[in-house]
Specification:
Pfam families: Hydrolase_4. The protein is of the alpha/beta class. The protein is built from nine helices and nine strands.
């Protein structure tokens, strides 16, 4: 039986700890945290969403949960090991030596979600690094007997997935080889990177933004990036670039443009300040046979944390995509 406790998001949200035992990367006991939006009276459940966050991130987006709940989807979000609610003293935040290690909590979370939702099919949703993690996981699930269909997964929605390393070309060639070498020898050593607080400042209500989040779990400057973690990411990128077969239709949302900045400026509010959107467009076709890529004008890196107009455009795109691809699980939106 799944035990639920009150969550930090307050009334209407609960969390369940998934015990993962000792960390295979040697950082002591670890767990993952599954968060659920408690269904309101009168809400019908026709399916379920399993959401996964990005790097230097955790689940706090109530509006996103409400959006799916209004369309008949019970909403669940997973804070991965050493991330957000799952981060403990002695952990290197977000560190994992192999992205396939996340299969443990993803498989367990999927079991809980399907049981809670009465066996309803699941829509996987993810942001940024979570988009890479979920895509690789679905490819492995699809190679199991019965594939993703037998696992009860019907679709994938990705919000600015991290599908390649941004920056100068040498970072993707000789730079990646250096990362792989150092990542084996000194995996938790931080990589020296330029200041990166512009995007965080654009979001936080204490700066220029409109969103409230815990900066202990989502720092404005982001957590340090380690060589071992980046090695795992680059191996994951290479697997994606060779081509995946996730077995379900996919929708990829991204901004129309990139604007990298070391300090906050208004341009950061209307562009992806973290990833190169051309790379997202280039590699999204590697997911499988049925992928739709939709640029959202004026969107931030997290499309669902953009300003109101691009956010509304993104939600409208999802409505259309659900009606087309998952009609049996896409009830009409509630009236405003």
């Amino acid at each position: 039986m799944t035990t639920w406790q009150p969550d930090v998001l307050g009334e209407g949200y609960e969390q369940h700890r998934i015990d993962l035992g000792d960390d295979p990367d040697g950082q002591g006991p670890i767990d993952a945290t599954l968060v659920r939006r408690v269904p309101r009276d009168g809400e019908q459940v026709r399916g379920a969403v399993l959401y996964v966050h990005g790097f230097s991130d955790y689940f706090f987006q109530r509006e996103l949960a409400d959006f799916f709940a209004e369309r008949g989807y019970a909403f669940y979000a997973l804070d991965l090991r050493k991330c957000g609610r799952s981060l403990k003293a002695g952990h290197t935040a977000h560190y994992v030596s192999d992205l396939a290690l996340y299969d443990a909590e993803l498989d367990r979370a999927l079991q809980v979600v399907r049981a809670e939702a009465g066996g309803a099919d699941v829509l996987a949703v993810a942001h940024s690094t979570g988009g890479l993690v979920l895509s690789l996981w679905l490819d492995r699930v699809n190679r199991r007997p019965g594939g993703t269909a037998a696992a009860g997964i019907r679709g994938l929605i990705l919000n600015s997935p991290w599908f390649d390393l941004q920056g100068a070309p040498y970072l993707r060639s000789i730079g990646t080889e250096v990362v792989k070498l150092v990542g084996r020898l000194k995996p938790t050593t931080p990589i020296k990177l330029p200041p990166g607080g512009a995007y965080g400042e654009s979001l936080s209500i204490t700066h220029q933004g409109e969103w409230e989040f815990d900066v202990a779990w989502k720092p404005i400057e982001g957590f340090p990036v380690t060589f071992g973690w980046m090695r795992a990411i680059r191996i994951g990128h290479a697997a994606l670039h060779r081509g995946l077969d996730i077995g379900v239709p996919a929708l990829v949302l991204r901004s129309t443009r990139t604007h990298f900045a070391t300090a906050y400026g208004p341009e950061v509010d209307a562009a992806d300040a973290v990833l190169d959107v051309r790379q997202i467009a280039r590699w999204s076709g590697c997911l499988g046979d049925h992928t739709e890529i939709v640029p959202i004008d004026g969107a931030r890196h997290d499309v669902f944390l953009s300003r109101s107009e691009p956010r509304a455009a993104a939600y409208a795109t999802i409505d259309r995509w659900l009606d087309t691809n998952l009609p049996a699980q896409a009830p009409a939106p509630a009236a405003d």
